Amino acid sequence: MKFTLVHLLFLCLNLAAYTTGDDQFVYSGFSGANLTFDGAATVTPGGLLQLTNGTDQQTGHAFYPTPLNFTRSRGGEVQSFSASFVFAILSIYTDLSAHGMALVVASSKNFSSALPGQLLGLTDIKNNGNGSNHFFAVELDTIQNKEYNDLNANHAGANVNGLTSLQSYYAGYFDDKDGNFRNLSLISRQAMQVWVDYDHKVAQIAVTMAPIKVGRPVKPLFTATYNLTAVVTDVAYVGFSSATGTINVRHYVLGWSFAMNGPAPAIDIAKLPKLPHVGPKPRSKRPVNNASLQESQVLLVERVLEQWSKESLLDTVDKRLEGNYDAAEACVALKLGLLCSHPFANARPSMREVVHYLEGDMPLPEMTPTDLSFQMMAIMQNGGFDQFIMAYPSSSASIESMSLISDGR
Length: 409
Known about the structure:
It is globular and about 70 Å long. The chain is of the alpha+beta class and about 400 residues long. The chain has helices at about 1-20, 295-310, 325-340, 350-360, 370-380, 385-390, 400-405, and strands spanning about 25, 35-40, 40-45, 50, 60-65, 70, 80-90, 100-105, 135-140, 155-160, 165-170, 170-175, 180-185, 190-200, 205-210, 220-225, 235-245, 250-260. α2 packs antiparallel against α5 (about 370-380) and α2 (about 295-310) crosses α6 (about 385-390). The longest helix is centred in the N-terminal third of the chain and has 19 residues, at about 1-20.
């Protein structure tokens, strides 16, 4: 009888925990924290939650290990919740980073199919925006991706099931003293705090941020009206996702708190771990009068990408052809040249595919200059493109040769 009563009591307590939904936690540093990791995510010896470690094209995820009850009953309305976290983004460059990080509420901790780069480790290209993703995220994005309608390369946004934000705003805060907006650089290597609140009564998402030494501003950075009941599942996980592109970047979380149906507990700023020191390293600028083969190829790719983004791709065709070429074929040849010059081997077509593309037997994969420009230009500007060109000297054709390919078909 006692055995049965104990188990009944345990069952009742579990049911009570589900219906109250008053789960909360706080981390002022992560030494000894019981979190679930994948990818590059780990806790450093100093107590920092490190989501990425500087490796190119990398993802990292860290989740609170226990799923939380976001509804009071199964199939019910998602309740109010609040989160706060202190983060820092450390790039080896003072003026360039990639790509970003996000606080995420998701139905699963499994993001094994999610891609790095502009997808921030949240999904893949095929499933971007798919309702079956069931995630809500607040992104801190350091790259402008026009295909996602990004404001700039330094913004915060609230996202549902994909990378196009419901609402976003430039990184910064509204000063309580005068109400003026103060810009913040996400890649300043300085710790900043973010507050995320969802009010289920009015279906409003509010995102606020400020430097770590500034208290929470009264006015949010932005708000968005969206009922998360259709997105967040009854039971869901809370954590972080992060991704790099082609830049050596480390994404850190120093402290984190969360609560259902109430304000997130205060993070003890005095107990936060220290960030590692990264020396200043501005992006190098290459001289345009360098006539070496490598430099010429770098400038060639830059020019083609630039003109493509301006919708004037044909302006890069060799003028000596005097217009005696098929415009459609020239565009194919130019785009194919860029694809063959991709810094990553798995993104470049095989010779068999190249022939099919040029013969018109197979259409080029869908791509935009935005898809290619950041990855290529970042490597070029960081000095890594030289090694790529030396390793694959035939992968970057000249404008003249691309034009002649088109003219000679």
